[in-house]
């Protein structure tokens, strides 16, 4: 935690969740609302309809529109940002204290629980109005029956070939994934905390994306 960061944000505070990208100025930005923030970690609500900033290719196409072998060729394809809207149901994001992953909870529009997503990422850095991380590509998916599967292993290999990560960094990311899976196997926090039954305060308005970030978007 940096010196400028508050001890903890009060429930209801709007903050920005940022995803920086190595070798690129483009970053993803998601306005979120604080659900809980204490020594157990930061819990955020990304509401449906929230305006977001997301990285795209320099020509405006989605990053996954190019073959996997070219996805990390920044010289060839470059990166830009697009002003977009978070579609579908919202997600609850749990950022644990000093761990290299976050846990996302998904529901259907009727609030049937769909499962957990363990997003491997850099340990979050807090500042006055935002929390910043870096996506590490490899992820884990856990269904409501607690079965766990790995996701994006092929993309992590492509990231190494594209010099987005070194082999050593990729090995560390895989080790982080095994550590996250061990927390699941032990049914530790936040999985045992009952967040599946959580619901957002209906009085909360949809958070806004600051105007200066909207004006910086390359595509709208």
How does this structure look, described?
It is a single chain. The chain is α+β, with helices and mostly antiparallel strands and 220 residues long. The chain has a single domain, classed as Beta Barrel (FomD barrel-like fold), CATH 2.40.380.10. Helices cover 17% and strands 35% of the residues. The longest helix is centred in the last third of the chain and has 19 residues, at 167-185. The chain is globular. The model has no long low-confidence stretch (mean pLDDT 94).
Core attributes:
FomD barrel-like fold, seven-stranded mixed β-barrel, 220 residues, alpha+beta, two-stranded antiparallel sheet
What is the name of the CATH architecture?
Beta Barrel
Fourth CATH level, the homologous superfamily:
FomD-like
Oligomer: single chain
Q: What structural category arises from helix and sheet content?
A: alpha+beta
How much of the sequence is in beta strands?
35-45%
Unreliable residue runs: none
- Spatial order of strands in the largest sheet: 1-2-3-6-7-8-10
> How far is it from the N-terminal to the C-terminal residue, by CA?
33 Å
Tally the helices.
Answer: 4
How is the topology of this model organized?
Blueprint: E1 14-20, E2 28-38, E3 41-46, E4 51-57, H1 74-77, E5 79-85, E6 91-95, E7 101-107, E8 113-121, E9 125-126, E10 130-142, E11 148-151, H2 153-161, H3 167-185, H4 211-216
Parallel strand pairs: 1-10
Antiparallel strand pairs: 1-2, 2-3, 3-6, 4-5, 6-7, 7-8, 8-10, 9-10, 10-11
């Amino acid at each position: 935690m940096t010196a400028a960061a508050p001890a903890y944000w009060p429930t209801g505070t709007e903050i920005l969740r940022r995803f920086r990208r190595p070798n690129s100025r483009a970053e993803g930005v998601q306005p979120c609302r604080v659900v809980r923030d204490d020594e157990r970690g930061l819990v955020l609500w990304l509401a449906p309809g929230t305006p977001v900033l997301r990285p795209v290719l320099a020509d405006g196409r989605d990053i996954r529109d190019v073959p996997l072998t070219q996805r990390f060729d920044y010289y060839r394809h470059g990166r830009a940002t697009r002003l977009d809207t978070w579609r579908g149901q919202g997600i609850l994001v749990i950022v644990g204290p000093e761990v290299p992953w976050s846990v996302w909870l998904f529901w259907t529009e009727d609030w049937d629980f769909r499962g957990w997503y363990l997003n491997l990422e850099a340990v979050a850095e807090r500042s006055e109005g935002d929390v910043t991380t870096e996506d590490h590509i490899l992820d884990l998916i856990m269904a409501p029956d607690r079965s766990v599967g790995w996701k994006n292993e092929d993309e992590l290999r492509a990231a190494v070939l594209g010099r987005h990560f070194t082999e050593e960094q990729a090995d560390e990311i895989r080790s982080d994934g095994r550590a996250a899976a061990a927390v699941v196997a032990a049914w530790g926090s936040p999985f045992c905390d009952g967040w599946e039954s959580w619901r957002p305060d209906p009085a909360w308005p949809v958070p806004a994306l600051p105007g200066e970030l909207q004006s910086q978007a390359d595509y709208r």
